[in-house]
Each structure stands twice: as structure tokens, then as C-alpha cells.
Amino acid sequence: MVRTGRGSGRDGRPTLEQVAARAGVGRGTVSRVINGSPRVSDRTRATVEAAIADLGYVPHRAARALAANRADAIALVIPEAEARLFAEPYFSGIIRGVTAELADTDIQLLLTLIRTPKERQRFGQYASSRRVDGVLLVSVHGDDPLPDLLTEIGMPAVMNGRRSAQETFPHVDCDNLGGAQLAVEHLLGRGRGTVATITGPLDMYAAQCRLSGYQEALRAAGREADDELIAHGDFTEESGHAAMRALLRRRPGLDAVFCASDLMAIGARRALREVGRTVPGDVALVGFDDSSMARHMDPPLTSVRQPMEGMGRAMTRALLAEITEGGPERAHTVLPTELVRRSSS
């Protein structure tokens, strides 16, 4: 039964003020709980939710959005083609984290792929019209103007990854350099003498960091990086296959490869098999991501685990805080990576 009592709305329904009074908190705190703000303690959130249940309060979603000039929607923008979105487990991990963090809110998630300058322009116009409250950016390349456009129009936004070491745009990243170092140190520690790498696209800072981690691990072991042992890919399986073939032509005696993504490691494994090289007998192999594919490879792939779902959650929490609270605090977060050892190395 809904208790109305003094202070109820014109239609007899409980009001936000009644919930605040029952919970012993301010009206703004109740609003933050309803809007899913992370800046509320678990204890306060539980008290407010108990008051909401006790009074039978139901937020009026349309009025709430109108009063706050809110759309109750955020956009997840991925500037890649559909083929990469559905082929790479990295994106599904990020999406799982984002949707899990939004599960207890009223906020809708709009997935947007941007593949051309025209589509970027169209999305810029869409965001400028305030049809979303904020934007999550994933897989941004170094020359992408979209982050700067969002800054210009004052749109709350958080990026997955960084464009450079000096990134000022709000972001959540993982320790790409440290993860790559762990991978190469592991290969050297297993007695491998000629360690090659297959990089990601070097217009992305993550790929640059993974290459730097490879080079730094070699230098720390008293070895100089050899350009013939570096082949470039674009995080796809086919690019890993082509890069592995190029490495074998240049340095047929190599005995280990660090691939900057699990998908490229799958392509490299295929190229090795085509020329009769065994893994790990002839060539040890390490990837990056620790996706489900790594566990199901033959042999199972040693890989650097990056917290894909964790990054999706952290990005979403940071964006919700920016939308709800505003203020000068901006996310600049780097999450740790770890090496998961399996039989490929």
C-alpha cells in the first residue's frame, strides 16, 4: 500500500522530499541514488532505497529528465567497422562492463559505430543537440578529432585508452607497457634467445606502449632490439598471420614471439603451423588480452590479462559521476595488467 500523507504530490503519490525526510538525507542525495551516481556510500544508498520501498515512491522518469535537462541516455562510440566489433573479444569485454554498470540505472545505452568522416560529423551534430547525456569512447586513434569536438561542445565524455602520455581528456586505460614487459621477461626467462614481436597499429598509444615494453624488456636483459624482429599488425587475425610470415622470412631462426593481441597470436599460430613450426617446441608464443580465445587455442595461449570488463565499469562510473556531479575532477585511471601463463610458452 502506498503511503501518501502530508507533503504528497498533487496526484497523491509520494514525493522526493518525503523520501529524503524518511531517509534523513538531503533531496540531492536521494536524486543521486535514483540516478545511479557512484558518489553515494553503500550505507546511505541502502537507507534511501529502504525509504523508497517503504513509501512506494516511483520516480517520474520523463519529468526527472526534463527537470534536469537530461536525455537519460549515453552513447558508446567505437570508431571501427562492424567486422572488428564482432571479431575482437576486447570490445565485447568493454561492452559487458558498461552494461553491467548501467544495469541498476534508468540510463539507456546507444551503441554507435563511426567509420567515415561523414558519420563522425553526423554524430557530432547528434551530441551537440544534447540527445545523449554523455559519451564513452573506445578504440580511439591518435588523429581522431572526436574527443576535441566533445570537449568543444561541453559534452561529458570518458575515453578508453589514451592518445599519448600527456593525455588530458578523461580516460581509463590499462598498463600496456608493463604488461608487455612481463610478457617479454617471461619469454627471456624461459631461455628464448631470439624474441620477436608483432605490434598493433602504431597510430594508437596502446600499441606504442606495448612495443616500448618489448624494447625495454630486451634492453633490461642486455639485448638490443632488432628491427628485423619487429613486424606490424593492426590487432586482427589476418594481420598477425601476415606479420608472422614476414618475420619467418627475415629471421627464420626466431624462437619466440610476443603478439600485441590474442587475435594476432591466433594468426601467428596459423602461419607457424603452415611451415611446420611447433608451439612451444620451436617457437614460444604470448598474446595480449587474455580473451576466451586464449584459453581455447591449441595449445592454450599465454597472454597478458587486461581487465576489459573492469575498464568498461570504471569508464561508466567516471562518466556517471561527471554527468551527475560535474565539477573539476576528471578520470585519469590506469588499471594493472598481469601475465597468465599457459602452455604456448
Summarize the helices and strands and which ones pair or pack:
Blueprint: H1 16-23, H2 27-34, H3 42-55, H4 61-67, E1 73-78, H5 82-87, H6 89-102, E2 108-113, H7 117-128, E3 134-137, H8 146-152, E4 157-160, E5 171-174, H9 176-189, E6 195-199, H10 205-220, E7 230-232, H11 237-250, E8 256-259, H12 262-274, E9 284-289, H13 292-296, E10 302-305, H14 308-325, E11 332-335, E12 338-340
Parallel strand pairs: 1-2, 1-3, 3-4, 4-5, 5-11, 6-7, 6-8, 8-9, 9-10
Antiparallel strand pairs: 10-12
The span between the termini is 64 Å
Backbone CA Rg: 24 Å
Number of E-state strands: 12
CATH level-4 homologous superfamily of the largest domain: Response regulator
Quick structural summary:
Residues 14-68 form the HTH lacI-type domain. 45% of the residues lie in helices and 15% in strands.
Give structural notes.
- With 345 residues, the protein is an alpha/beta fold.
- The protein has three domains: 1-59, lambda repressor-like DNA-binding domains (434 Repressor (Amino-terminal Domain), Orthogonal Bundle), CATH 1.10.260; 73-173 and 309-334, Response regulator (Rossmann fold, 3-Layer(aba) Sandwich), CATH 3.40.50; 176-305, Response regulator (Rossmann fold).
- Helices cover 45% and strands 15% of the residues.
- The chain is built from 14 helices and twelve strands.
- The protein has helices at 16-23, 27-34, 42-55, 61-67, 82-87, 89-102, 117-128, 146-152, 176-189, 205-220, 237-250, 262-274, 292-296, 308-325; strands at residues 73-78, 108-113, 134-137, 157-160, 171-174, 195-199, 230-232, 256-259, 284-289, 302-305, 332-335, 338-340.
- Strands 2-1-3-4-5-11 form a six-stranded parallel beta sheet, with helices on both faces. Strands 7-6-8-9-10-12 form a six-stranded mixed beta sheet, sandwiched between helices.
- Helix 6 packs across helix 14.
- The longest helix has 18 residues, at 308-325.
- 44% of the residues are buried.
- Residues 1-7 have low confidence and may be disordered.
- InterPro entries: HTH_LacI, LacI/GalR-like_sensor, Lambda_DNA-bd_dom_sf, Peripla_BP_I.
- Keywords: DNA-binding, Transcription, Transcription regulation.
- This is Family transcriptional regulator.
